[in-house]
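P.,

For your records, the input lines for the assembly:
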Amino acid sequence: MQNAIDDKIHEECGIFGIYDKSKAGNIASTVYYGLFALQHRGQEAAGIAVNHNREITLVRGLGLVSDVFKHKDLASMQGDIAIGHVRYSSGPFKGVENAQPITVNYAKGNLTVAHNGNITNSQALRTALENQGAIFHSNNDSEIICYLIARERLKCKTIEEAVANVVPMLKGAFSLLVMSPTKLIALRDPLGIRPLCMGYINESVVFASETCALETVGAKFERDIKPGEILVVSKDDMYSDMRFATDKSALCIFEHVYFARPDSTIDNQSVNEARMNAGKLLAMQYPVDADLVIGVPDSGLCSAIGYSAQSGIPYGTGLIKNRYIGRTFIQPTQAMRERSVALKLNALVSNVKGKRIVMIDDSIVRGTTLKNIVKLLKNAGATEVHVRISSPKFLYPCFYGTDIPDRSCLAAVKWTEEEIRQNLDADTLGFLKLESVKDIAPCSTADFCTACFDGKYPSCVDNTIDPQFIDKL
Ligand code: SF4
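Structure tokens returned:
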């Protein structure tokens, strides 16, 4: 069911890993704080797996990072390699068996995987493997990846060779951390659709979905994992296999618009600056006479500052967010649903009363929440509300791990722009123009996926297995 107070699309996951060569402290605590910094990428489940002398200790559970791990768990999880995961589940499979990391014991020992993204041919792979007797414990595509790597490892000399054999079988988006008894491997799919970066704490190598998590654990950012790169860390060595790297890339543009934290940098582009740039572009594309620019917390705030800077209209606070509402919040009753936005946001009457407001939000999915926010501002005395959206219209589904609802639910599919404006009861409305969406990130070393706006998918998204691999499965 749609969360009545949260008409947003969501990221699937965040991942964090460390090869602790310097033995600087409790390894599980480092992963815990890394996951804590990535909590915005998934709030429904979390897990940490620690490798100690070839034995894996795994703690997984449903809920926030702070709910899942107890101090005694972390204190007892000693080891030298560890990976962790926070999960948001878009489908019906929300049980703890779908929490990650996924770990398997097989003939060569153990193998643990944490995955951010979505494998579009996972069902075809699952069916092919099940027809040969494979048994899966979850509905998770990460378990399929884990199984495939373990199977390949039986046929080749090293875990990294096994990983490299599996990469071409997978379609879709995958930033992965793979932990063997002696190695930690980080890889990004050949288009780099989901982010992954690395840094150091002394000699210890740290990987994270976003740089904000490196900062939190005191790691010095080194670089992003390149699209198609497989980076292998062992006790005495570290090297990259670039066989899948090409000159193409397609980072999800929505990482900059909404998913990532503004204090992160992805592929050389500051997320905060990208959002400010979106606001500046909106000010140029949709100027209006107004008294105050406000943002819908949190992701609309940076763009509102950008709009203000470009337009000269003062920036201010117009909406106050209740910071203690998580995604596990009990759904409002039908009677309360009408007022559901008030559970999350309140208008700052003293700032908005009698003013013409420009209000920036990052996106319109169904339009339900935004309509209520406009109403909130008008009830608080705003004389005009001009809505500006720092992304283009959502028109197409995402196959790479973002839970954009069925097309029939999308406001921009159902209605014309003028109908959306009327539905919101906004005085004017403007979406960031599609042709300028990539301009929000001029410093990025990556090109972008913009498929949910323009339908141009950067890779094949079908649920099939390439014929060359069918015999190998
Ligand atoms: S389709 Fe949209 S949400 Fe999905 S990866 Fe591409 S830009 Fe991101």
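Two observations worth noting. The CA atoms of residues 465 and 473 lie 10 Å apart. Residues 271-285 form the longest helix (15 residues).

Regards
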